[in-house]
Write a structure and sequence with these properties.
This protein has 6 helices and no strands. The protein is mostly helical. It has a domain at 33-132: Four Helix Bundle (Hemerythrin (Met), subunit A), CATH 1.20.120. Helix 4 runs antiparallel to helix 5.
């Protein structure tokens, strides 16, 4: 068997395994809400939750071009992996474009969450803080009881 074909097959299989593992992790994360700032919004009171989700939808709408560029970069990376001869530089560039798009959207979402938190109540901020602590692998401290 052609060594290049074996190498391309190996790279493609590693890529596919990573995609499946990432998808499984995403699904598992969906079943355990409250482990990110975005999912913490689901624990807010109904009126605040609506405002929170609307703000995040707005960011995604405003970031549509960046999101589409990231998706195109991932498709380009997949196509490059399927070529008989791997162009490592082009693959690295496509993956970097996808990563930069993801980071840009994440930064925009986090900035909107900061704006929401700045105008929110201490209780709402506590819910967001608890989500960050769980994400960092620490459980939030027990609630303080009033004397």
């Amino acid at each position: 068997m052609n060594p290049r074909l074996v190498a391309a097959s190996l790279v493609l299989n590693v890529f596919l395994i990573g995609a499946v593992a990432g998808g499984a992790g995403w699904l598992i994360g969906k079943s355990t809400p409250g482990f990110s700032l975005e999912s913490a919004g689901g624990r807010l009171p109904a009126a605040d939750r609506k405002i929170f989700r609307q703000a995040l939808r707005e960011v995604r709408r405003e970031s549509r071009d960046v999101i589409l560029d990231g998706q195109a970069a991932r498709r380009e990376a997949a196509n490059l992996l399927q070529q008989p001869t791997l162009d490592s530089n082009a693959l690295a560039a496509a993956l970097e474009r996808a990563r930069n798009a993801d980071a840009t959207v994440r930064a925009r979402l986090e900035q909107r969450i900061v704006e929401f938190a700045a105008s929110g109540s201490p209780e709402d901020r506590q819910l967001l803080a608890d989500a960050l602590l769980r994400r960092a692998g620490r459980q939030p401290p027990p609630a303080k009881k009033s004397p």
